[in-house]
């Protein structure tokens, strides 16, 4: 089972919206049983991300440069523009 983190600045508002969208998408794709999701604030998770505690990290906020390569930018899931690309990236990570 893959571990996914969805994070925003404070771990409440935008990450809640994105989490709901990702959970709905996972269910529609038949992938819900392959992922556990945690929701949090970026400041609380930097060390966990550096130490590879998550398989998939989706963020709706700016992240430090030293973890940027491990992050899927989830802003498109808020705007609806380019969301298919984000879902494709998530699916690729689930299937690896």
UniProtKB/TrEMBL annotation:
Segments spanning the bilayer are: none
Q: Name one GO molecular function term.
A: protein-N(PI)-phosphohistidine-sugar phosphotransferase activity
Could you tell me which PROSITE patterns the record lists for this protein?
A: PTS_EIIB_TYPE_2 (PS51099)
User: One of this protein's GO BP terms?
Assistant: phosphoenolpyruvate-dependent sugar phosphotransferase system
* Positions of the PTS EIIB type-2 domain: 2-96
Q: Tell me the keywords, alphabetical order.
A: Transferase
Q: What is this protein called?
A: Phosphotransferase system, galactitol-specific iib component
């Amino acid at each position: 089972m893959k571990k996914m983190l969805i994070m925003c600045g404070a771990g409440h508002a935008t990450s809640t919206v994105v989490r709901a969208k990702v959970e709905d998408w996972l269910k529609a794709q038949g992938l819900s049983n392959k992922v556990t999701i945690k929701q949090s604030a970026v400041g609380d998770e930097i060390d966990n991300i550096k130490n590879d505690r998550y398989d998939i990290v989706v963020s709706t906020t700016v992240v430090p440069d030293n973890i940027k390569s491990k992050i899927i930018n989830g802003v498109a899931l808020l705007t609806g523009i380019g969301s298919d690309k984000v879902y494709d990236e998530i699916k690729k990570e689930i299937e690896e």
